[in-house]
Design a protein that fits this description.
Structural class: alpha+beta
Strand content: 25-35%
Strand order of the largest sheet: 2-1-6-5-4-3
CATH topology of the largest domain: Beta-lactamase
Shape: elongated
Distance between the termini: 99 Å
Radius of gyration: 36 Å
Largest sheet: 6 strands, mixed
CATH class of the largest domain: Alpha Beta
Number of strands: 27
Number of domains: 3
Oligomer: single chain
Number of helices: 21
Length: 634
């Protein structure tokens, strides 16, 4: 019996010295038992493994599974990758080195804690047995110890403007809440708080707040509102002494104001249960994450790398818990996101839209380099407002005559002074088209048809621009192109012309053609520049895009026609705007019994598009907003 047991052990030692474990593994050797143990470790299933204590006493497999779970602590739900290293032995004892790669979260790209541990095995009468001791899990572990992971959030980076000044950055805020147990006059305190908040234009649902207070434990904090420090200061003396209120002063990543670029910048707030569920292992309760806009799209970059420390928790006889650091990953600060937004232009855009109750959007693009200077949307104070300026998909109306005119002029089908009839009504394929207010200009130069926005003239010219030529004209100006400003956009789609009636409608921006304000702003910038250049919102390293020149003669003629829209046509209200000459095109788009208003144009180095949902005519809704925008520019 002794000879049978020592023979394989001696052979094992000799083989390992010569060539490592692979050359001598066998189904009844210690390696086989060790592998069975590692296979069963993650799930605690050890049907094929026998355990003994260091003194040789039998240890039930279920007890080993329970101890591994307890020792693993916060890492228990995470599956380590386990592999056998060198195995050596003397007599009837074998020692195996095990490499452990333990992920620190459930995220797919989670960092791992890599270390080596030792598993001893003893040879029994019929097989090899694992000698169980807590140090098998990690060399530093003893009975009663457990592992834990401590997280340290990285410093969140900023979203910067076009001169690299912070837009979304850590700003001082105050959380105001109710602690009912310390209140002596809850009703009076709530009334005073309500009056104070209204004085700074902040309204909360007081009835709903009272319901939350009544439903809460009196000793629990009930959140009321978070105020920027500059909003809190004017009411501080009025609310600070109220017994029912509690205050928490901290910093939170915010834009300059509650409405500033809300839809494009997004917000930063505490992670929700839904976000945690959709991104397993990435976040922990209390993390700050981005919602909407750039804050969400670039959240990983802005958030940085969370620091993680694995500690061994050991309870001393006196009950004090000692924490011993075993492994640490230092937090790495996020990387700033550099945008092209110009604060003064953004403020001018928001000022223009501020007083309008309708859904509206304004996008401004610098002509010379394609940088997006402003992205404004009404209703910007909503928690996650829709970025209508980027993702709206609506008919362009007569602003698309800028595109059709470009195509007709470039193809040589018309010249500025070509006489084109503008009747009050024109029928194509059994479909009748009319002008706004039943306008009838008669036979006038093409330039006048552009300036006064004659639908029937463009419908009559449609056969000279088949569907392919119309789409090509749109493509020359970027509409429907494959370009990316750094955030989700709808780049537009141009009607393929279809039947004659569809082609006629498409020439003046109806039919199935759809655009967004950013697509029309970029197209307008191309006309102003004389070359297509992909617009940019997020500045990335790399060579700038090369402009794609348009036909210079065509562009000059188009400039002339678009200037006459302002001097003699549908946008004469802009004649008195200070600064350089204004060029542009009005638009009225009808869809589903709703009429939208448009204006696209440029002044000096700023091209822009204004869209007003259900605004009626472009002259009546979008042009006044364009006027306010241009007057608000410095």
């Amino acid at each position: 019996m002794i000879g049978r047991r020592r023979g394989p052990a001696l052979l094992l030692a000799l083989c390992l010295t010569a060539a490592g474990t692979a050359a001598c593994s066998s189904d009844d050797g210690p390696e086989h038992t060790l592998q069975a143990f590692l296979d069963g470790w993650p799930a605690g299933q050890f049907d094929q493994v026998t355990f003994v204590s260091p003194t040789g006493a039998a240890v039930p497999a279920t007890e080993v599974a329970e101890q591994i779970a307890a020792l693993s602590g916060e890492l228990h739900e995470l599956t380590p990758r386990l592999s056998i290293g060198q195995v050596s032995g003397e007599s009837d004892i074998a020692t195996g080195q095990v490499t452990v790669q333990w992920p620190l979260s459930a995220a797919e790209d989670a960092p791992t804690w890599d270390y080596s541990t030792t598993v001893r095995l003893s040879e029994g009468d019929d097989d090899w047995r694992v000698i169980w001791e807590p140090a098998v899990v990690h060399p530093e572990l003893g009975g009663g110890d457990e592992l834990a992971v401590r997280r340290e959030a990285a410093t969140r980076a900023d979203i910067l403007d076009n001169v690299r000044q912070p837009l979304v950055t850590a700003r001082r805020v105050v959380d105001i809440g109710i602690w009912q147990a310390q209140a002596t006059d809850l009703d009076g305190d709530l009334a005073t708080l309500d009056d104070a908040l209204r004085s700074i234009d902040v309204e909360i649902d007081m009835a709903g707040l009272r319901e939350r207070i009544d439903a809460a434990d009196p000793n629990h904090f009930v959140p009321v509102v978070t105020l920027r420090w500059e909003d809190y200061e004017p009411i501080r003396d009025r609310v600070r002494t109220l017994g029912a209120l509690t205050f928490d002063d901290w910093h939170r990543h915010l834009a300059p104001t509650r409405t500033f670029g809300r839809a494009v910048l997004g917000t930063v707030d505490e992670v929700t249960a839904e976000v945690m569920e959709n991104n397993p292992g990435v976040h922990a309760v209390g993390d700050q994450v981005g919602y909407g806009g750039l804050s969400e799209r670039y959240d990983t970059r802005l958030r940085g790398v969370t620091g993680q420390t694995v500690v061994l928790q050991r309870t001393a006889p006196d009950g004090e818990v000692e924490q011993i650091e075993l492994f640490a990953i230092e937090p790495e600060a996020g990387t700033d996101l550099h945008t092209t937004l110009d604060v003064t232009v953004q403020e001018a855009a928001e000022q223009a839209l501020h007083s309008d109750d309708r859904r509206a959007a304004l996008v401004a693009v610098r002509v010379s380099d394609g940088e997006v200077l402003a992205v404004a949307n009404t209703h910007g104070a909503q928690a996650n407002p829709v970025n209508l300026a980027f993702t709206g998909a609506v008919p362009p109306g007569s602003t698309f005559k800028m595109v059709s005119a470009y195509g007709l002029l470039a193809a040589g089908e018309v010249e500025l002074d070509t006489v084109v009839d503008c009747p009050g009504e024109f029928t194509v394929g059994g479909r009748s088209f009319r002008n706004a207010d039943n306008m009838s200009l008669g036979e006038v130069p093409f330039r006048t048809n552009v300036a006064d926005s004659c639908n029937t003239a463009f419908a009559a010219l449609a056969p000279r621009l088949d569907g392919g030529a119309l789409a090509a004209a749109g493509a020359d100006l970027g509409i429907g192109g494959d370009w990316d400003v750094g955030l989700e956009t709808f780049n537009g789609e141009v009607s393929d012309g279809g039947d004659p009636a569809e082609l006629a409608a498409a020439t003046f921006g109806q039919g199935t053609t759809r655009v967004s304000p950013v697509a029309m702003a970029a197209a307008t910038a191309a006309v102003a520049r004389g070359a297509w250049l992909e617009p940019t919102l997020v500045v990335e390293d790399g060579p700038p895009a090369e402009p794609e020149p348009l036909d210079a003669g065509t562009v000059d003629d188009l400039h002339t026609a678009l200037r006459e829209v302002v001097t003699d046509g549908t946008a004469t209200a802009l004649q008195g705007v200070p600064g350089g000459e204004v060029y542009g095109k009005t638009g009225t788009a009808e869809v589903d019994d709703v009429t939208h208003g448009w204006f696209v144009g440029w002044q000096d180095d700023i091209a822009f598009a204004v869209f007003v949902e259900d605004g009626g005519s472009g002259s009546g809704s979008a042009v006044p907003l364009a006027d306010q925008f241009l007057r608000a520019l410095p």
